[in-house]
Model the fold of this input.
Amino acid sequence: MTEQRSEPVRADARQNRARIIEVARDAFSVSGDASLNSIAKKAGVGPGTLYRHFPTRETLILAVYRHEVDELAAHAPELLAGHPPLEALRLWFDRLAYYGQIKHGLSDVLHALTDEGLASEIYGSVIGAITALLRACEADGSIAPGADPDDVLLMLGFLWRVGPGPEGEARAGRLLDLVVDGLRPYAPAG
Done:
């Protein structure tokens, strides 16, 4: 039996891949129908380079999706390190809203492409970030204790239905303010 060895990826190939993902993310946030050729051109690579990294449109969409989720989950501890917990929570929600705008044009494709293993992996990292943010807010008293991260994520599902653009951003901001206000502790009347 022969042992297969994977070749290390060259630095320029890693940079090309990262640049393609970033350009695709921006292109898909404008239009879910962005062409791969336009993405390659904006990334400064030829179509062959794009197709070497992403043989199909679907593989590129999944790479953008995974990249966004990884960044989103990693952003929670960074925000907690630099902001009071409630502010960090709200800033993370803003980031999630931006992510929702990107996903808005791709939701049908992502739903069809996301298998249970990938969905579970992504769900777990997002729930982990929400849990860390909620627990930090509970610890400093800025939200009521006992908020369930799964419930909060379910409430935030509206973000995937808000359209992109300035009107969508304003609407998402207002709705996120309502979510945060609903998590705050309150004194009973009377």
User: Anything to note?
Assistant: The mean pLDDT is 84. The radius of gyration is 19 Å. Residues 57-183 form a domain with the Tetracycline Repressor; domain 2 fold (CATH 1.10.357.10). The chain has two domains: 11-55, 57-183.
